[in-house]
Write the structure tokens for this entry.
Amino acid sequence: MTIYQNLIAGEWVGSDASENISPSDTKDVVGLYARGSAEDTKTAIAAAKAAFPAWSRSGILERHAILKKTADEILARKEELGKLLAREEGKILPEAIGEVTRAAQIFDFFAGEALRLTGEIVPSARPGITVEITREPLGVIGIITPWNFPIAIPAWKIAPALCYGNTVVFKPAELVPGCAWAIVDILHRAGLPKGVLNLVMGSGSVVGQAMLDSRDLGGITFTGSTGTGKRVALASIEHNRKFQLEMGGKNPMVVLDDADLSVAVEAAANSGFFSTGQRCTASSRLIVTEGIHDRFVAAMTDKLKSLTVDNALKAGTHIGPVVDERQLKQDTDYIEIGKSEGAKLAFGGEVVSRDTPGFYLQPTMFTEATNQMRISQEEIFGPVVSVIRVKDYDEALSVANDTPFGLSAGIATTSLKHATHFKRNSEAGMVMVNLPTAGVDFHVPFGGRKASSFGSREQGKYAAEFFTIVKTAYTLP
């Protein structure tokens, strides 16, 4: 079987490899992908550093053309790349194709942004002096991405990094090297100069640590667990390096008595269970006022009964497998914790078998939960939700904000008063009204508050805040 190699200094290199296994069918080997070493990582960083002076001064038309060509190829291959994504991550095929489409849209957006680079010229407080304010690229950017969005998250980090003139060393999650390799291959063939984009696949303890230890990275953008994010922060502070963190979430979906029940159920089911609940924006706390609580739970139970758990590539599947055995154990451990805490297992909670061997878990809903339970405070990152009964809107808002996280929050209501108040007073970076908490557009900022995020926002024009540095220049003619 062909080994998909790392890209370092414009060359495909590497011989040591590991199997990429599908969680929908553990007999399905997606491919053999190279495992980089610490030395590979150092070489990649050196190559990116050497390429930076020329690329940072490259013309905007060159950057535009490469990013646009990349967007066009990704979109043209969305069915093929969507199947690859579904095989290696377990996301059902329609969701996978949708994610690939979003990646293409991101590259297309930043192709346009390359032509819209601007600055300011303002008069100085001192007569006769001109002040010029510009943005310049940061330098070599280390990019570390998670497994749950294996093409969209790399896209929304790589595209702005290149758009603004930075060079890149990219380490994807070990579980999903296929999509990472494909997107780097497309960019490489689109005409990037050698060393501008480097791919080093491998373990976080080896490749990731070598990146953290390097003094030559101007910035690191990381999406992943809260614990690892703290390590990225500490290492970056030591090297006086800019860093951007997107981490965990324990997102609330508030359902008020006046909500349209069908809208509330669809939003809650999508938020909690689609993509197997493996989204940092998933809502795993359903905070429901007592007037609608019993009807909501009954309707949610009916909805969950209608959802099919099966192979991600199989037509008619609503929920694919959990990504791997370790994540499955984490999910089932939390289900046992929920039972031991006194929550009622109202639906699901069982590992199930299908025609192909994989990591299949029923969508799981607890009722009679409190916000103090571990299942209501800790990120499970699986298809497991807790229903928390509250008296009224005021208590719902208080419970929604009673979490160390603050990424996304939703409310189902027909009250303009409550919707407006919730948007203003929710302690989350993103708020959804009558919509799932998961699912955001590609051209607007993404990010949270509290333990969910640190640093400037990702995506859209706000990406410039991280990937550039402001320079102020004074001129006396």
